[in-house]
Amino acid sequence: MSSLAKRTYVISDLHLGGVYPDAEAAAKGDRGFRICTNVPGLVRFVDALTARPRGGDGSPAIELIINGDLVDFLAESNSDGKGWSAFTHEPQEAVRKFEAIVERDRTFFDALARFLARGHRLVILLGNHDIELWLPPVRDALARAVGAHAGSDYVLVPGPEAYLVGDALIEHGNRYDRFNIVDHEKLSRASALQSRSQPTAPTVFDPPPGSRMVAEVINPIKTRFKFVDLLKPETGAVVPLLLTLAPSYRDVLGRVALIAAQARDAVKIAMGQETDRKHGSDISAMPTAGMGDMGSIGGDMGGMGGGFGSDISAPTTTDPAQAALDALLTETLAQDAGAVKTLVQAEAATPAIGSDISTFGDFVDRSVGMMKLLFADSDDDFSTRLDALFAAFKSLRDDRTFDETTETAKEYLDAATALARNGVKHVVFGHTHMPKRISLPSGGFYLNSGTWADVMAIPDGLLDGDRAQVLPRLKEFVQHLLTGDLTRYVPTRPTYVRLDVGPDAVVRDAALCRFTDDVAAEAV
Hints:
The protein is of the alpha/beta class. The chain has two domains: 6-205 and 401-455 and 490-514, Purple Acid Phosphatase, chain A, domain 2, CATH 3.60.21; 233-400 and 457-488, no CATH class. Helix content is 34%, strand content 10%. The protein is built from 14 helices and eleven strands. A hairpin with a 2-residue loop joins strand 5 and strand 6. The longest helix has 21 residues, at 250-270. The two termini are 26 Å apart.
């Protein structure tokens, strides 16, 4: 007889969504518009859990928690063909997008239906890429897709709430990321209107700034550079550097600055403070301390120098976007003006490259930004820019982003430490795509379930050796990125958290695990 009452499995950040490539494109290594290419592995994982005893006969009950970003509405293009939406407020369009996702990956949703039919418990929490799931018509479509009915042990956790398993608290984690805080009060208002078949104008709910960033900036870039949302974090200095290093993106970079100001307001909303919404006039007051994917937009741009042909410390434009951009650059230059000397001229054919580019924020921000050095203006001759890339990558050698025992984004560990009290011992997040297991003062653990979507890694050995040895490897790496053939750089990392709960509702073991086809609960 088992000493456990329940065994809970937590996965997150599946990001099902985006079109697959056609057969011909796939044969050439094209990814389509996907960041999750491991749906067959997900099906095997769920089926492995489904095959377990239901519990009640001496075996533990089985619970599967999908901790946010089950699907990715931001990867679904609009039906009118005009790009993507940061939030799909129109119910029929939201249902259309969701059903398109389900149809592409029907095998996974069928696996969830088999899991429920077996009598196991399925719990789904919202993330920041799937907030449309809380709209009543989409909520109903989700229940149908997973085969939930009146007798099913199925829970869709209300938008802003966390979920408790014994003395472990589980939530997606985006509320600690200032670019991805969801205004659940307004989301509930939109949901209430739709439950009454009343119209919901786009002004009813403001999507998080990070969602706007993906829809307006990341996705258009992704149509050309498939790696842009595989390297993590996908934002922060990544986007500003990508845009700044292409002078033709100046207007888009202005929108980035406005989004940064809105992220500051999102923090104030979360703290119950008033906002002035005067974006562009006081963006210099924006916090520069990192908070998640987009949190380092100020500090990590601290190595960027230059301007737009005028004194950026004295903006002359009344355009809010350009004023915000001028203020943002002024702030960051004051912090670290000597790190990079990059001049952004609206009429320039190519950006100027500084001699020292080795101090840009964290490792992913630097690597994506430096990739853009090689891609700017469709220049086919990269040899003159490889030295700059080498300088940027030198500082990656000691990076610990992928270390499962270290949280390089301090705000998540701080949040977990604050939550682990009042009867909570363990805290489980997702959102960052980085699996973690770190001791907390509570005596428990902060765990991050990682992701089943693809995460791009800098290839082993790329940085080993001196400049003469590294440059040829860098050139080959860049050529693969240009062609979109990323297969060798995107290893499969299917991780999850397992919580073993005793009859006393105390978690006996909190493990970070990696799934294999042979074992469904293998500790890392």
